[in-house]
Amino acid sequence: RSCEGQSADVNVLTGPAGTVYYVWQVDRWAQSSTGHGRPNQYQATTYLAPLIFNPDGSIPVQTCTAGWTFA
C-alpha cells in the first residue's frame, strides 16, 4: 500500500537518546476529481510515517495514518 502515491525513500533519524527511527516517505500524486493524475504535479505532497517492522525484520503492509509523533 502506498498511501495515494509512490514509495520514495526511507529516512533514518537518530533521536537525542540514540534511538534510531525509520521514516517511510511517499511522494503523493495530486489527483483530479475523476481520480486521474493531474498533468502538473506541483500540488503533490509528501507523506511521512514511521516504518514498522515485523519481529523477524521483514516489512509488513504499512497503514496510512493521519498523524504520529516520536516517543
Secondary structure: elements and pairs:
Elements: E1 5-14, E2 20-28, E3 46-50
Antiparallel strand pairs: 1-2, 2-3
Features:
71 residues; mainly beta; three-stranded antiparallel beta sheet
How would you sum up this structure, described in words?
This protein is mainly beta and 71 residues long. 0% of the residues lie in helices and 34% in strands. The protein contains no helices and three strands. The chain has strands spanning 5-14, 20-28, 46-50. A three-stranded antiparallel β-sheet has the order 1-2-3, with no helix packed on it. Strand 1 and strand 2 form a beta hairpin. It is elongated, with a radius of gyration of 14 Å. The relative contact order is 0.26. The mean pLDDT is 81.
Task: Provide a brief overview of the structure.
This protein has 71 residues and is mainly beta.
